[in-house]
Amino acid sequence: MNNLVTVDLGDRSYEIRLTAQTRFEEFLAAFRTDLRRTWAGRSCRKVMVVTDRMVEPLARVFADALASADFETRLIAVEPGEGSKSREGLNCLHDALIDFRADRHTTVLAVGGGVVGDLAGFAAATYARGLPLFMIPTSLLAQVDSAVGGKVAINHPKAKNILGAFHQPIGVWIDLSHLRSLPPRQLRCGLAEVVKHGVILDPDLFEFVERHVADLLALDPHALTRVVADSCRLKAGVVTRDEREETGLRAILNFGHTVGHAVEAVAGYGGDLPHGEAVAIGMVAEAELARRLGWVGPDLPARVAALCVALGLPIRAPGLSLDLVRTAMTLDKKNQAGRVRFVLPRRLGLVEVTDEVSDDLLNSVLEEVVRP
Predict the structure, then answer these.
(1) Does 138 carry a binding-site annotation?
(2) Which CATH number fits domain 4-180: 3.90.226.10, 3.30.2130.10, 3.40.50.300, 3.40.50.1970?
(3) Could you confirm whether 85 is annotated as catalytic?
(4) Keywords assigned by UniProt (predicted)?
(5) pLDDT score, position 1
(6) Is the per-residue pLDDT at 146 higher than 60?
């Protein structure tokens, strides 16, 4: 095992294990160890494997390994893409769990990217008042972000991730070799979240990405191990201190997401603007808001924009309706008392949550984002 990151949550703590290549005897040993941490897991004999149709062959390998270890398994594959993170998709998983005669000891194993993790996780959180959840994230975005921290959700047609819960996994298994089959666009989307972690928490990580753009895009194993391990440790540290967003610390993880979620919603979930690209657009816009507020000089937004461009990420969403983007922002989960809240940088490695962005200032920045 190359790296081990602990998410320290008392009796709900769990391990994130990073490996360069899965050895199934190690995976099964880790799976059993993590099951023993929970009352429900200790009596687990059934595993529902949830994946999507693109990752299904890989998921079947894990399902077969579990079956060979005397677990009763069932596999369900959903359609890839944000469209599956819906009430209909959730009902499909609940139906499968009922047909499987799942009980409170049945474990849900999510094998796939962020969509699979969110959907499977929310199904696990809402079935029988909560089932054990084990995650095998196969996309970079899921490995560095969505598989860490216990947030699970589905979309409503009017708002992203608005129907959700906190449901921590019992374990996370990250195999970096899974990234070799990842489409380049999905790899770039994951790197957007790495850039976010650098801006909000770790200048060294940001600068590492600046220096190693070519290595990361070429899937250099040493560079990937560094950014995945660092991202997991950074996010785990935040989650440990503010698991349920009660102190406000965890909100910093939403840098780029106020604008990002809005443009993603207006573009249409599952459309031609995936989440990581929307976050890149949001980071550039929100860094520019910070500049115009006088919080940062011109260097920081310029570096964020330049790095996103170097990674092949968009920094604008031309042609979207400004009015629709503004309306989508009013549904953001961070809002309080009807005021839109932003996470804006004070310097590289330090951000602050604020609702002190005027309508005129916001409109002036968004006009640049959506200008054809």
Answers:
(1) yes
(2) 3.40.50.1970
(3) no
(4) Amino-acid biosynthesis, Aromatic amino acid biosynthesis, Cobalt, Cytoplasm, Lyase, Metal-binding, NAD, Nucleotide-binding, Zinc
(5) 47
(6) yes
Q: Is 257 a catalytic residue?
A: yes
Section 231-257 average pLDDT = 96
HSE-CB of 260 using CA atoms within 13 angstroms: 28
Q: Is 242 annotated as a binding residue?
A: no
Q: Residue 313 is inside which H or E element, if any?
A: none
Beta strands 159-166 and 3-7: pairing type? unpaired
Q: Which residue has the tokens 């785990």?
A: 236
Active site residue 352: no
Q: Whole-angstrom Cα distance, residue 106 to residue 44?
A: 6
Domain 184-370 listed as CATH 1.10.490.10 = no
Which residue is listed with tokens 């990250």? 174
Give the active site residue among 46, 197, 261, 291: 261
Structural element, H or E, at residue 333: none
Could you give the residue range(s) of every CATH 1.20.1090.10 domain in the chain? 184-370
3-state secondary structure of 109: strand
pLDDT tens track for 113-132: 999 999 999 999 999 999 99
Told to judge if 156 belongs to the known catalytic residues of this protein, a careful annotator would answer no
pTM above 0.85, yes or no: yes
- Structure confidence by residue, pLDDT tens digits, 330-364: 988 888 888 999 999 999 999 999 999 999 999 99
161 compared with 18, residue with greater pLDDT: 18
193 an active-site residue?
A: yes
